[in-house]
Amino acid sequence: MPIFNGFEADARIGESKAVIRELEWTRKGLSETISFEVRQAILNRAQARETLLSQEKNVEQAREAVRIAELNYAEGLATNLDVLTAQVGLRQASTNYTQALYDCVISDAQLEKAIGRGRSESRSN
Q1: pLDDT digits (tens, 9 = 90+) for 89-112
Q2: Which own/partner pairs from 79-86 qualify as long-range (CB within 8 Å, at least 24 positions apart)?
Q3: pLDDT, tens digit, for every residue of 21-60?
Q4: Of 104, 105, 110, whose CA–CA distance to 52 is shortest?
Q5: What does the alpha-carbon distance between residue 79 and residue 123 come to, in Å, rounded to a whole number?
């Protein structure tokens, strides 16, 4: 039975401690990364919702512009081009609203991903 092992036990202990420190730093880094992703997803979600509300108001204003242009056209105060321009504005506002709605859905999905919850889990809760 050998009594002296050439500091092999000390080397193994030191190696184990180094591995433990490395794992702790990796865990800390992952934790900070996840925390950052969650904060970023929350901010993106808030921004997407604000944009959606803004685009909703733009659609309302564009509808009103079409209504006014059509009334003015009926009274002979506007041309057909004025009505068409207002309708194009409404279509653009509707497109922007649809994009904002899409961005909201995507931001919700990114937040769920960041917190580690899938779509099926969120539906059951």
Answers
A1: 999 999 999 999 999 999 999 999
A2: 86/62
A3: 999 999 999 999 999 999 999 999 999 999 999 999 999 9
A4: 104
A5: 51
109, 119 Cβ separation under 8 angstroms: yes
Give the separation between CA 22 and CA 64, rounded to whole angstroms.
63
> Radius of gyration (Cα) for the chain, nearest Å?
30
| Band (9; pLDDT cuts 50, 70, 90) | confident
Give yes or no for a contact between 73 and 82, defined as CB atoms under 8 angstroms apart.
yes
Among the listed residues 95, 101, 13, the one whose alpha carbon sits nearest the alpha carbon of residue 53? 101
Query: Which tens digits make up the pLDDT trace of 60-94?
Result: 999 999 999 999 999 999 999 999 999 999 999 99
Helices (H) and strands (E) in the chain, counts: 3, 0
- In angstroms, rounded to a whole number, what is the distance separating the alpha carbons of residues 34 and 45? 16
Answer for the pair 58, 92: CB distance below 8 angstroms, yes or no.
no
